[in-house]
Amino acid sequence: MKIVSWNVNGLRAIARKGAWDELLNLETDIMCLQETKSEAHQLDDEVRNPKEYPFSYFNSSQLRKGHSGVAVYSRIRPLGVSYRIPIREQDTDGKLFENDRDEEGRIIIAELEDFVLINCYFPNGGGGPERLKYKLKFYDDFLKYILKLKKEGKKIIICGDINTAHNEIDLARPKENEKNTGFLRIERDWIDQVVKNGFIDVFRHINPSLEGAYTWWDMKTASRDRNVGWRLDYFFVEQDLMGKVQNIEHLSEFAGSDHCPIVLEIR
Questions:
Q1: Three-state DSSP string of the chain
Q2: Does the annotation count 100 as an active-site position?
Q3: What's the domain count of the chain?
């Protein structure tokens, strides 16, 4: 089975650029897309319901139209699909309660026969202290959710744009970015916690010392041409699934977005 994960930076945009057809030509079994920036009804029929993928699912932002959003296309019918994780909030008295809203349209959870596949577009911490706070809260809630699934005996695959580079090897200029969101110690510590709890960063596990392996480049500075990038896109697999992993690949030459697709192959 092959699963592709790609932050498309606009699903309608990649269709206009011709990258949609190239994506279909990869002939993967499941496509997980992030930052779709669209609602299902806004998509052309060949993008909303491609014949190659009879099962398609969409989650879009209800707060800011044309922002965030995720999609899953599958050749395999999932046993179940959901679009929420419990999000902790405070009531007017300061007491915490759980709310399962995801108004920014960031997650799709597909339960398959052998594992639960979570496609997530994690928040960017830029734009001020409140957005960083929101990102860290989302991180915290997400970790609690996957640990709950793990406790229930679920095998888990997580993919998407994590919006953080884990270690210095994962971005071209680590020293210059130590105080910038996406490489703050507090953000990186969260990935440490994910790994410590038995979720394997597949690419780095297979390529522990490979430098220059990035998945995002700043388009404004044409940094892709110079490979001045960040590794922000990941596949994490629950430890018991690692033996089924056959390969993972960054499609760094694949155009159409400021991110490149990554492809996981499992037995």
A1: CEEEEEECCCHHHHHHHCHHHHHHCCCCCEEEEECCCCCHHHCCHHHHCCCCCCEEEEECCCCCCCCCCEEEEECCCCCEEECCCCEEEECCCCCEEEECCCCCCCEEEEECCCCEEEEEECCCCCCCHHHHHHHHHHHHHHHHHHHHHHHCCCCEEEEEECCCCCCHHHECCCHHHCCCCCCCHHHHHHHHHHHHCCEEEHHHHHCCCCCCCCCEECHHHCHHHHCCEECCEEEEEEHHHHHHEEEEEECCCCCCCCECCEEEEEC
A2: no
A3: 1
